[in-house]
Amino acid sequence: MSAASVRPSASKRVPEVESLESLVKMIQDCADSKCLAKSYLTADVVRKMSSVKSKYGCSLAHIIRNCALNPKSECPRVGDADCYKIFHEFLDIVIKTYHKIPSDDFMHPPPTFGDIENLPFGNLDPKGDSVVSTRVRVGRSIDGFPFSTIISKEDRLLLEKKLSVVLKELTGEFAGTYHSLTGLDEDTKDKLVQDHFLFGDSNKIFQDAGGYRDWPVGRGIFYNKDKTFLCWIGEEDHLRVISMQEGGDLAATYARLIRGLKAIESRVQFCHSDKYGYLNCCPSNLGTSMRASVHARVPKLSADKTKLDDICKQHGLEARGAYGEHTESVGGVYDLSNERRLGLTELEAAIEMAEGVKKILELEATL
C-alpha cells in the first residue's frame, strides 16, 4: 500500500472534557498558575469561545485542560492545525509571550537548511574531551490528521500505517526497521529502553491534554542500521525525526537530519503556515521546531545550576538533565540545546547552538 493511498477517516467524536467555564475557573483561582494567557481568559472570552470548534472538533476547553490541571504548565496543547486560525486570538498571545515575539505582524522565515556540504560549523569537541553525543531533532505534524490530543484510535492507526509505509521504504543510509509499540516483544523493548530510544507515557501534562489515550496503539519507533537516524510515530507530535551520534560532530548530525527529513517530506505533506512555520501540538514547538543538542560534561559549571542556567541564557542555550526536561544531571553531564525555535531559520538555530556550546566548553575549561 502506498503512503498516498492512506487517508484519515471521517471525523470521529472528540474526547469529552470538563466545561470551558470550569477549566477557566480552575486557572483563574490558582495563584500559582503559569498559564501564559491566563489574563486573556475573561468571562467575555468564555462566552465568545464556548461553542467554537476547529476543523476536527477541538474546543478551547480541550486546548486549556492541561493548564487547568497542571498549574506549572505554561503552554496549552492544540487539537489540530486549524486551531492556530480558529483560536488565534488566544494562541497568538501564548506564542508571542513564550517565544518573545516583539511585534504583531511577525512572520516566521521560510525553511532554510543551508548548504549541508559546506556548513559554518563542524565538530564542537574535536579532542573528544567534553561532548558525549550530539542530537538534532524536529517535530512534524501530518496534514489531514487531528493532533494527538483529540485523534481517534482509528485515525491514529491510519496515521501509523501511512508513516510506517514511508519509513520502511527509505533507502541507503536511512534504510531501517520499524517497531510498533503494540505487541512489542520484551527483549526488543528492553534493548530500546537501555539505548534510551523508547518514549513512554509518563508526562502528566501531556496525559491531561489527552495525549496518551489508547496507549500504546498507533505508536512506534523506526531506526536505521547504525541507529543514527530515528523516527518516533505518535509521541507528542505525529512524527519526531531524530539524527544522533556519539561525539561532537554537529555538522554530520545536522546534515543527516536534513537529508532524511527531505526524503520523508517528498512522500507526505507536513502542517505548515506562513506565519508560524511548522505547526505542532504545543505552541512552544513551532517554526523550525528544531532542537539541536549535545550531552556535554560540564562538572564545574554544573556545580551551580542557577549560574549554569544564567550563562546558557546569555548564549541562547537551554540546559536540561541528561535524560531530558525536568531531570537531573548525572555525573556533571548536561543536555545543552538551542533555546529559540521560532523566528529564525534552521541553519541560524544550529549556528546559535554551535556558538553557544563552544562558549560553554571554553568557560568550563578555564575553571
Automatic annotation (TrEMBL):
Q: Which UniProt keywords apply?
A: ATP-binding, Kinase, Nucleotide-binding, Transferase
Which InterPro entries does the protein's record reference? ATP-guanido_PTrfase, ATP-guanido_PTrfase_AS, ATP-guanido_PTrfase_cat, ATP-guanido_PTrfase_N, ATP-guanido_PTrfase_N_sf, Gln_synth/guanido_kin_cat_dom
Q: Name one Pfam family in it.
A: ATP-gua_PtransN
Entry binding sites for ATP: 133-137, 196, 240, 291-295, 320-325
What Gene3D superfamilies does the database record attribute to this sequence? Answer: ATP:guanido phosphotransferase, N-terminal domain, Glutamine synthetase/guanido kinase, catalytic domain
Listed under GO cellular component are: extracellular space
- Choose any GO biological process term that the UniProt entry carries and state it: phosphocreatine biosynthetic process
Q: Where is the Phosphagen kinase N-terminal domain?
A: 19-100
Boundaries of each Phosphagen kinase C-terminal domain copy?
A: 130-367
List the molecular function annotations (GO) for this entry: ATP binding; creatine kinase activity
Q: Which family does it belong to?
A: Belongs to the ATP:guanido phosphotransferase family.
Q: What is this protein called?
A: Taurocyamine kinase
